[in-house]
Amino acid sequence: MFFKILLSLLLFVHPSEIVIDRIVAVINTEVITLSDIDKSLLFNSPDRNSRQDEGNLYLDELKKLIDYKIVYLEYRDQFQHTDEDFEKIQLSIIKKYGSMDNVLNALKGFDMDMKDLREFLIEKIIYEKVIKDKFLLGVVIESSEIEKFYNEEYLPSSNRLKIEPKSMIEMTPQIENFLRGNKVKEELSFWLGGLKASYKIENKLKYEIGRDN
């Protein structure tokens, strides 16, 4: 379990001490615990890079949880979650674990059931709704941008790799999604920075590991 690994590697806990859980971040009066990161790694991020350094893995996941919580606190009265929202995430989790029984067994490790999992996922659901509403739906990619990327990035890359390039018509949906993702990422980072400025955030894990961002 990631929780036990991180305790021994990063938090300098003596082997004879028993630690059940601990606070790794505080947002105003809201807290995020080490076990929250473990839950997120297991149920929020099924496609994470398993080869990533353990410390960076936890710090990056904590950063996401902080973003989820701040957006949730800011917009929870404006955006609602539905059964359908939860069912979509639930299906991806079941796919990851292979069966509902395996999911339930994973939840038992945190003394959780499906109702508890739903409560845990609410912040992510609201976050994704807000981002979609504020960014994804409003980002427009011009045909000239797609053509430029196709000619200046895709074709040279295909030639270097000695791969037969697809036509621009075939590649347009993928290029459009890629360019939209980049635009959203830039705008989102700026927007989140402004939002975070109105909250008191203490990332205890970052200080203990010694990473600057």
Question: What do you see in this structure?
Answer:
By secondary structure, the chain is mainly alpha-helical. The chain has one domain: Orthogonal Bundle (Triger factor/SurA peptide-binding fold), CATH 1.10.4030. The protein has a three-stranded antiparallel sheet with strand order 2-1-3. A hairpin with a 2-residue loop joins strand 1 and strand 2. Helices cover 65% and strands 6% of the residues. The chain is built from nine helices and three strands. The longest helix has 29 residues, at 168-196.
The low-pLDDT segments are: 1-19
First-to-last CA distance: 25 Å
- CATH C-level label: Mainly Alpha
Number of separate strands: 3
What is the name of the CATH superfamily? Porin chaperone SurA, peptide-binding domain
